[in-house]
TrEMBL record:
Binding site for CoA: R197, R198, G199, K200, T316, S528
Claim: DNA-binding is one of the keywords in the record: no
Binding of Mg(2+), residues: V542, H544, V547
Family in the record: Belongs to the ATP-dependent AMP-binding enzyme family.
UniProt name for this protein: Acetyl-coenzyme A synthetase
Cofactors demanded by this protein: Mg(2+)
UniProt source species: Nocardiopsis suaedae
Entry-linked CDD domains: ACS (cd05966)
Binding site for ATP: G392, E393, P394, D416, T417, W418, W419, Q420, T421, D505, R520
InterPro entries referenced in this protein's UniProt entry, alphabetically: Ac_CoA_lig, ACAS_N, AMP-bd_C, AMP-bd_C_sf, AMP-dep_synth/lig_dom, ANL_N_sf
Post-translational modification: Acetylated. Deacetylation by the SIR2-homolog deacetylase activates the enzyme.
EC number, as in UniProt: 6.2.1.1
This protein's UniProt keywords: Acetylation, ATP-binding, Ligase, Magnesium, Metal-binding, Nucleotide-binding
Catalytic activity as recorded in UniProt: acetate + ATP + CoA = acetyl-CoA + AMP + diphosphate
């Protein structure tokens, strides 16, 4: 966070919200987790997590729950466990083999229904195939795939044999894939000819060919046939999935791996160029992912149909498409494609078709649906839904109420879940049967999680105060480090405050003591000596009936230090904007948050630059607002977005007074 000359200023607390949505009575009465769990967990945190670990099947019980040698934690030391066995064999052995694990829906409309027994067979076959290809325990396997069942199979096969999966989002460039292959020294790449996106096949194999060309460390490329596109072939290196996996035995005897055995690496780019390989291990990760999936979504595995509408290449997909739902024996939906193919009601059609009861998605998707208008979801039967979740960015209060009303029928709780690749699982979130929902607030640290909001000196802030979110005690699914770089792990997360984990997000505690996340600290603006969060200004803009989405940045300003520059996307029915609307929006922000937050400029744009998980890349917008060359754009989902924004900026649709 930028500091004032005195270094004292914390985040200004500008936004106020008085709407409350109590849990439905029947949901509250039958909720998996009740209010007394907080006190139980506070009384003895390690004992609480040990109890949650017992929800899983251990091959050998642990000797010690926690070894804490700050900032390095080990959980469930001495215990051995197999993540794939917990996700599959355990359920099949208990007679639940015929239960559906995934209702998979391809973008073109093809479908597959896969039971736990079938998934187990597929994973055993893939495990045997990886072993045949020479993959050994501890080796890294890259997974560069579309959203198809084989992606889950590849991950679980790695987990089963103790190889470390490293999933790279299928939308990433050759360079992004290449640097991740180098850093992880992956031995095998699992990919596909392509996947379906926006109504057409989108190839993957050519990017892998290019990336592995000068990387002899990659010994094999295992290729799933999905689209039937032509592919180049390198004999000896390339192997078709159907050639090697299908002929394997469906028997594979899994061993228990050490609780601290690496499960996966997931790269996150952060603000600097070199991505960080976040390392997760087995026992603690699975414990917290499994518990939070059950607690936060109030999962009833016998009856719920759970859907995380996110990519597996994002940590949200790892934790809440794969390991959470499967470890809990849930039935999930998995969807390959985009929300507007072949029509803008595709998500709601899927909810109706499979009777989805719990849906989890990013605010960026919700704001896109707002832009498209409420008539679209209104055309489908969404009455099966009973809990909705949000993840990835702060959810603006207006987007929250829109989601609750138009998707949740004004009936479902909405859980705003704050966490990170680094935290592995949800950390701060309301519990749907306990809390009255408050639009825009992530509310409370989950039972067993010692998160807090602190000021610049690391002191807890009182209600009404702003500052930084931190975590005071280790948690089971915490990252175990940055792959190959322990110093960077210490510097990035443990050097800002002595003994506290620093996630890098701004936060405030409201008068009721509830937590609000206010965006990345690097994005906080310093306007005339006030630290103002981008989130609050964006939320004020989204609260205007003509605005669907907005991104706010601080740009250098000779008089105020930084000035607020806003980029907005209008709702479908709002027309193209124009000077009057820009003026109206500036006044609207000033009226909601005070004159200090009035944007200097507002640009109406057709799109915003986003990452794979839909996070707005404000850094690039700052480059535009300050007329600089653009920085690294390799993790953008749509490289064309920036051109359109530059054009809009250059044509001066802003208001400069
Ligand atoms: C799970 C995930 C982590 C960053 C995190 C924060 C932002 C995620 C949020 C949220 C406000 C929420 N973030 N969830 N901000 N409210 N509910 O997104 O992981 O891709 O590593 O991003 O995302 O800034 O620090 P990851």
């Amino acid at each position: 966070m930028a500091e004032t000359p005195q270094g004292q200023e914390t985040l200004s607390n500008l936004l106020h919200e008085s709407r409350r949505f109590p849990p439905p009575e029947d949901l509250a009465a039958a909720a998996n987790v009740q209010a007394d769990t907080y006190a139980e967990a506070d009384a003895d945190r390690p004992a609480f997590w040990a109890k949650q670990a017992e929800r899983l099947k251990w091959e050998q019980p642990w000797d010690r729950v926690l070894d804490w040698d700050p900032p390095f934690a080990k959980w469930f030391t001495g215990g051995t466990i197999n993540a794939a066995v917990n996700c599959l064999d355990r359920h099949v052995d208990a007679g639940r083999g015929d239960k559906v694990a995934y209702h998979w829906e391809g973008e073109p409309g093809d479908t597959r229904t896969i039971t736990y027994a079938e998934l187990k067979d597929m994973v055993c076959q893939a495990s045997n195939a990886l072993l045949e290809l020479g993959v050994e325990k501890g080796d890294r396997v890259a997974v560069y795939m579309p959203m198809i069942p084989e992606t889950v199979v590849a991950m679980l096969a790695c987990a089963r044999i103790g190889a470390v999966h490293m999933v790279v989002f299928g939308g990433f460039s050759v360079d992004a894939l290449g640097t991740r292959l180098d850093d992880s020294a992956a031995k095998v790449v699992v990919t596909a000819d392509g996947g379906y996106r926006r109504g057409k096949p989108s190839s993957l194999k050519p990017a892998v060919d290019e990336a592995v060309k000068d990387r002899p460390a990659v010994q094999h490329v295992l290729v799933v046939r999905r689209t039937g596109q032509d592919v180049d072939w390198t004999d000896g290196r390339d192997v078709w999935w159907h050639d090697i996996v299908d002929r394997q035995s469906t028997e594979h005897t899994a061993e228990g791996h050490d609780a601290e055995h690496p499960l996966y690496i997931m790269y996150t780019s952060g603000t600097t160029a070199k991505p960080k390989g976040i390392l997760h291990t087995t026992g603690g990760y699975l414990t917290q992912v499994s518990y939070t999936h059950w607690a936060v979504f109030d999962l009833k595995p016998e009856t719920d149909v759970f859907w995380t509408a996110a990519d597996i290449g994002w940590v949200t997909g790892h934790s809440y498409i794969v390991y959470g739902p499967l470890s809990n024996g849930a039935t999930s939906v998995m969807y390959e494609g985009t929300p507007d193919t072949p029509h803008k009601g595709r998500f709601w059609e899927i909810v109706e078709k499979y009777g989805v009861t719990i849906a989890y998605m990013a605010p960026t998707a919700i704001r896109t649906f707002m832009k498209w208008g409420e008539d679209i979801p209104a055309g489908f039967d969404l009455s099966s839904l009973r809990v909705l979740g949000s993840v990835g960015e702060p959810i603006n209060p207006e987007a929250y109420t829109w989601y609750r009303k138009n998707i949740g029928g004004d009936r479902t709780p909405v859980v705003d879940t704050w966490w990170q690749t680094e935290t592995g699982a949800i950390m701060v979130s309301p519990l749907p049967g306990v809390h009255s929902g408050k639009p825009g607030a992530a509310m409370r640290p989950l039972p067993g999680i010692a998160a807090d909001v602190v000021d610049d000196k690391g002191e807890s802030v009182p209600p009404g105060g702003g500052g930084f979110i931190v975590v005071r005690e280790p948690w089971p699914s915490m990252l175990r480090g940055i792959w190959g770089d322990p110093e960077r792990y210490k510097d990035t997360y443990w050097s800002r405050f002595d003994g506290l984990y620093f996630p890098g997000d701004g936060a405030k505690r409201d008068e009721d003591g509830d937590i609000w996340l206010l965006g990345r600290v690097d994005d906080v603006m310093l306007v005339s000596g006030h630290n103002i969060s981008t989130t609050e200004v964006e939320s004020a803009l989204v609260a205007h009936p003509k605005v669907a989405e907005s991104a706010v940045v601080g740009a250098n300003d000779p008089t105020t230090g930084q000035a607020i520059v806003a980029f907005v996307i209008l709702r479908g029915e709002a027309g193209d904007g124009g000077e009057d609307l820009v003026k109206e929006l500036r006044e609207h922000v000033a009226a909601s948050l005070g004159p200090i937050a009035k944007p200097r400029q507002i640009m109406v744009v057709p799109e915003l630059p986003k990452t794979r998980s839909g996070k707005i890349m404000r850094r690039l917008l700052r480059d535009v607002a300050e007329n600089r060359e653009l920085g690294d754009v390799s993790t953008l989902t749509d490289a064309g977005a920036m051109d359109k924004i530059r054009t809009a900026f250059g044509s001066g649709s802003g208001d400069d007074d």
